[in-house]
């Protein structure tokens, strides 16, 4: 069974997907760039993720952490949960919402059209 990763734990996972393995202090440095969390808070989340088996630990002179779940796997899971929760499972409603409520450049719009054409 895949571990459930919370909204806040994603910050830890992002740091590890960017570079692995990392020590706890390296993870703290990386996560501190985008949050105002204390080192204690970050390390608590690291321990929780290890307990959930979302990240592994290599015992060396210092503990080194690495992801046990793939980034794309988590993105797929979280996208589906968001789609179900916010748009009642309707990809059509989600895409319409994004297109109507987001400033999209002509280049991005052209790329989106190409993606949709490639799916046919």
Structural overview:
There is one protein chain. The chain has 120 residues and is mostly helical. The chain folds into 2 domains: 9-67, Arc Repressor Mutant, subunit A, CATH 1.10.10.10; 71-119, Penicillinase repressor fold, CATH 1.10.4040. Helices cover 62% and strands 10% of the residues. It has 6 helices and 3 strands, in the order H-E-H-H-E-E-H-H-H. Helix 2 (24-32) packs across helix 3 (39-51). The model has no long low-confidence stretch (mean pLDDT 94).
Helix and strand topology:
Blueprint: H1 9-18, E1 22-23, H2 24-32, H3 39-51, E2 55-59, E3 63-67, H4 71-87, H5 91-101, H6 106-119
Antiparallel strand pairs: 1-3, 2-3
Helix pairs in contact: 2-3
Measured as a percent range, the helix fraction is 55-70%
Count of DSSP strands: 3
Order of helices and strands: HEHHEEHHH
| Assembly type | single chain
What is the CATH superfamily of the largest domain?
A: Winged helix-like DNA-binding domain superfamily/Winged helix DNA-binding domain
The tally of structural domains comes to 2
- CATH-scheme architecture of the largest domain: Orthogonal Bundle
CATH C-level label of the largest domain: Mainly Alpha
CATH fold-level name of the largest domain: Arc Repressor Mutant, subunit A
The CA-CA distance between the termini, in Å, is 33 Å
Query: What integer is the average pLDDT?
Result: 94
What general outline do the C-alpha atoms trace?
A: elongated
- The percentage of residues in β strands lies in 5-15%
The rounded Rg comes to 18 Å
Alpha plus pi helix count = 6
Largest sheet: 3 strands, antiparallel
Unreliable spans are none
Identify the strand order in the major beta sheet.
1-3-2
Which structural category do the helix and sheet elements fall into? mainly alpha
